[in-house]
Amino acid sequence: MASNPAQFELSILLIDDNQARAESIQSALDNSRYCIKHITSPKFGLLKLVDEFQPDMIVIDIESPSRDMLESLHTISAFNPKPVVMFSEKEDTETINLSVKSGVSAYVAGDTDPARVRAILDAAVARFDAFQQLRQELDDTKQALEARKVIDQAKRLLMEQSGMSEQDAYKRMRKMAMDAGQKLEEVAKTLIAVMQNMKLG
Amino acid sequence: MSSPDLNIGYMPLNDAAPLIIAKELGFFEKAGLDVQLRKQNSWATLRDKLHVGLLDAAHMLAPMPIASSLGLGCQPTAVIAPLIMSQNGNAITLSNNLVDDIVAENGLSEISFPLSAKLLAPIIESRKSSGKSKLQLAHVFPYSCHYYQLLDWLKQGGIQMEDVDIHVITPADMVDAMLNNDIDGFCVGSPWNAKAVRAGVGITVTTSFDIWGNAPEKVLGILKSRFDETPELFERIISAIKETCQWLSILPNRFEAALILSKTAYLDTPLEVVAPSLLGSCLTKPNTAPRELPLYNVFGALDVNSMENSIVEDFILLQKHMLSAKQIHNEVPKAHLLEILNANA
To answer: Structurally, what CATH architecture does the domain formed by B5-88+214-340 represent?
Structure first.
């Protein structure tokens, strides 16, 4: 998503049963980079709509019954994660802060002053991007650690079973990986499977 | 004995009865508790409000505290379930059209209950071969017994999960979605199955009790950090709810409970829809004698310290269902489940 927030147009799916509020948000965002599609809480088919419309962000009234439908979106990996912003009737700073901490991307309470709404949406997008990046980094680190473990195990097995030195075992695996055009981790996995079978046999 | 204002959240369902009756018949008041009940429109919002402390406690689906503590669909948040408020109460209702197809395609003279999902097989086959869309089924929340019961019912009938489309719809909207032909069947809690039958929209073919036997359904969810601040206050709430459950276990009281639940402030639903499951009666289809199901809505007030083993076993089973639904990839350690249940060390 946009690293420079002024560059791209972002589409927003707004789910709100309060027509007047929806209109005021829409007009607040006229001539901005946000392009809004407003719907009232659908009783069915929200995921299909999200799939068709592919919004960059979803803004929903916290009291909407469609929230559970939206919740199932997180469990379907085919849908890319999207920032969700909640609207609430009540002005309650404490709630706002807590919700932000608890993972909701932003919490817009009370008024829909154009400048403020736009600022909140900008902040939500930025925070969401940062969060996604952090999560990606965490996933990458986890995977690297996992790969390290597998490679070490394969190396140990090679050393035990073929009496190789650590360096030779590593070289052997690297050569196998290069010859097969595979990642070192994949070669290590295959080796472990084969050597464990040999042990059993 | 006075208490601060306490906010307890619930979803409009028959098994919110322990909270609604405790409020209406003064069990909370007697315990010196000033409780406001807050009706919610979605499980997700109920959960979020509990997590941020807008609600002091909530009527929750039994798997929700596990999902909260693991951070499934939310930030990891320690929620405890020191009290199982109810067991059973869910059922599967199929649309009239689907039931007509079941009767025709299986060459049945009439339908019998509980219905096996096996009978869906010829319909799934013929829909597949004629290029029609899959059967559309719904439940209420990703982390709900309803979802696991629906999956188990299908599995028991040899139906693959990939052969149907499964959706999430909030309980009170279920009947409308069926009326609108958006869905062919759903698994939901009372009284929404009875509503479908009364409205002539669908036929209740089996219940969660038929699929699982007795199983925990709703728990009292409390933020662990809140509980630890004022355990004595929460113990008072818990014992008031337990007392209410005892009152609810007496059958002649159930009609009064139905009358209260049906009020606008609570379920806002006619008595003839709310009452049957509370009285142990499972409506199946119009103009047919209901099935007698004494354990349809059980208000047990079970707590882990009085019946430790069976509840822990039940929660071990629950996390197994989460595993087989691929919502989690590792077993939840027993010690973690005991912590969620607030078991005494």
So the answer is: 3-Layer(aba) Sandwich (3.40)
